Amino acid sequence: MTHISVTVDGTAYEDEVEPRLLLVHYLRDRLGLTGTPVGCDTSNCGACTVELDGASVKSCTVLAVQADGGEVTTVQGLARGGVWTPLQRAFHERHALQCGYCTPGMIMAARDLLRENPHPTSDEVRKALEGNLCRCTGYQNIVRAVLAAAEEGEGAEESPAPGRRTASGQEVTA
Amino acid sequence: MTDQADRADHGAERTEGAEGEVGRSRLRKEDARLVTGQTNWTDNISVTGLLHLAFLRSPMAHARVERVDISAALERPGVVAAFTGRDLADALGSLPCAWPVTEDMVLPDHPPLALDEVRHAGDPVAVVVARDRYAAADALEAIEVDYAPLPPVLDLEAALAEDAPLVHADQGTNRAYDWPLRCGEPYERVRERADVVVRRRYVQQRLIPNAMEPRAVVVTPLAASGEYTVYSATQIPHILRIMLSVVCGVPEHKLRVIAPDVGGGFGSKLQVYGEEAVALALARRLGRPVKWTESRSEGYLATHHGRGMIQDVELAATREGRLLGLKVDLLADMGAYLMLVTPGIPVLGAFMYPAIYKMDSYEFDCTGVFTTRTPTDAYRGAGRPEATFAIERTMDELAAELGLDPVEVRRRNWIRHEEFPYDSIAGLTYDSGNYEAATDKALALFGYDELRAEQRERAERGDSVRLGIGVSTYTEMCGLAPSRVLRDLRYSAGGWEAASIRVLPTGKVEVVTGTSPHGQGHVTCWSQIAADVLGVPFEDVEVVHGDTLVAPQGMDTYGSRSLVVGGAAVHRAAEKVVDRARKVAAHLLEASEDDVEFKGGVFSVKGSPEARRTIQEVAFATFTSHDVPEGMEPTLNAGHVLDPENFSYPHGTHLCAVEVDTETGQTSIRSYVCVDDVGRVINPMIVEGQVHGGLAQGIAQALFEEAVYDTEGNLVSGTMADYLVPSAADLPEFTTDRTETPATSNPLGAKGVGEAGTIASTPAVVNAVVDALRPLGVTDVRMPCTPERVWEAVRAAGSGRPEPEEAAR
Predict the structure, then answer these.
(1) Residue A140 belongs to a domain with what CATH number?
(2) Which of B427, B542, B547, B636 has the fewest CB atoms within 10 Å around its CB?
(3) In B260-408, at which residue ranges do the beta strands (DSSP E only) sit?
(4) A–B interface: beta-carbon pairs under 8 A
(5) What is the per-residue pLDDT across B377-400, written as a single tens digit (0 to 9) for each?
(6) ipTM score for this prediction
């Protein structure tokens, strides 16, 4: 077991973890932050995309121990005081999601793009999101949403401030 | 909904002429939790004492299982139990097939865990139960299995030879069934009087559905009373409840099945899977809650595939291009077992080969063939994309043969709008449509004549990047379905859908639906339907679904049925609520029921507008029941179970322009235009989204995707890194538009939209690729039209060699 300290969506955590534990499983199974889903096992789909120390990463391809001392932002840490970011709003308004499984990763990857390139063309959006797969939308409305969020100034946003966290881990009784 | 949603909603687009909620692009109620990560996927569920399952799967396509030793796995840290197929044999029956398409269909046993033999790579042989998912996965390597290899069965034609090795030796054949259909004049007779006969073979490659959420199941037992709650990433909680009851011997009333948030399905979650049954059996045996979540690569082996057919198509026509007859011979790859509706998929397609065309004869024969591959079953379109591909590709071949424009050949044969309702040669009654209108609109949007001119110009100057234009004028049958038709097709269940509406004392409304959405936006659309009929605000409607306890009656979501059957049931139930409320209102207003009008949620007496009661006031009055009509049951609540009279027949015209680089084989889509007629539209935004997604999957079959097996029966495209699910960078912008001829078979006038884009688009794209290369002598490119295949086709045509015949996979 290895000791790690990591800040996720503004909250600091200390944990003992197996060195092989994937960051996404740490988020989901240990912290109960199930907003970040897993869609594949080969780093192709991007559903698990989060931000680690200012860069977007696929959290199925990062070990929890690699996040030691780091700061992680997930989709659950984006909204502040219940107010959505321009990207979250744009995804809703442009119907850029259907089942919504790829949405957290898609939003996190688009956020990374807009930080680097606040006013992309639609081709640039398509290329930048190449590592995030969606099976429902055919991508057209995702592209529209990212362009709309750019108009709304998503890319001009400062680095992430602590956001609202939601305990999504469910207790279920039979 | 959040305040953001409300604000954004303000300017929502409306269909022209739409006054109420229906026809309006309402933003989705579903989105709030999905964009904030407050989701409830099955894998998110955690309970005290939860144990995790992992399955050991066969690495071989076909083998005798001579020994399975789990003892070493039990010694591994964190392992609680492990079981072989034999260990669980008395707790698990065979997995069900609900569609015995013929009386003499061969239906082999399908044990959830293999007993003596494995029949496809990925067939499970043992299961480990451990304290966490890592421990369960680790322990798999400690299980010892002795396999005695048996020959794989992979080639559909060779599998039917007399001395072929058998997938199920005890059945004595690899032939699952023969299913014939004969319509109109005998084909041989019309063939004799034909001027032209076009015969082609097409291969529908196997596809992997790839819902973004992998499958998962959680079972929580209440062992003392023998009750179990099954959470599953399924499209069919209601069907699953019945089937798990049968497979596991747990009485149906002791099972509750919940489909929580479900991340896509496309048919792949229209299934009763072995892992679901094993999870229930283990929760029962151990008295502990259990969870299983598949990995993507595991799912590629264990979740059913789609397509997998060889089609021999023959079209007989006059020299003017008028169709006389169509003959189709189909070999359909069942895979190793017949799962829930495996054998019925080609049968669903059987009725759609004649498509929108008039002809005198139609003959169809399908043979289902067992192979040692993952079972096939429903994948978006389920039989109809295959049929549409075959007829639309062959219509292009006929046009080429006759030197006619492909659109013109279609025009000469399609059913004209004044001929509806039209009894198709295959025996369906197409209720409504206007193929001319959709086609004319699509041609104009596409700039068809200009693109043809450019194509000629570029061909003349010898441009190595060739322009190709593809057309697909499709229709399809969806909205499953009239129960009596399903009976005639030997399907084991009905096709009705249930809805009930509860009007709460405060005037808020709960709609309980038997459909089980997983991305389609039912909560939003059903709210629109109910709000319009009841005259209540959209925001005041909640839609409850996907839980057999709270929505006890349903036939679930597949086959583009939810709106036209389930949404229509909501409409009917709401009308019944209004009828009840009218009685109470008339009583309160001391008026005759006939004199009471209802508009915008208000009951009023004709001629005295001040005498009025809102539906909310009536709801409260009914709740107190202090003063309801004598003898009236004191409730406004009502339900409706709707069994449709007919299928729904969306149609449309899709046009695709591709640029094909003859030097590299690379195809890129330059423009894609589709005009779909899905009848009356509840929510145009959602309809457009369904079309986009459908197009993406149909285009993916044309250009990108294939489940590839090697000669040993190993799935070579076994991970998402090897199987090309297209990304945003691989797909074009789509131009979508609609025409609207209302369906006559449901009160909404709506037609299904979920599968239309997939059904229509594949032939449009391949027709475009072939159109680009036809002047070079190319007459077909097998799907997916990868650069390698296109380049090979160009090279073969240029050298005068016949195109390479690949072994049928």
Answers:
(1) 1.10.150.120
(2) B427
(3) 290-293, 306-317, 323-335, 361-370
(4) 232
(5) 999 999 999 999 999 999 999 999
(6) 0.96
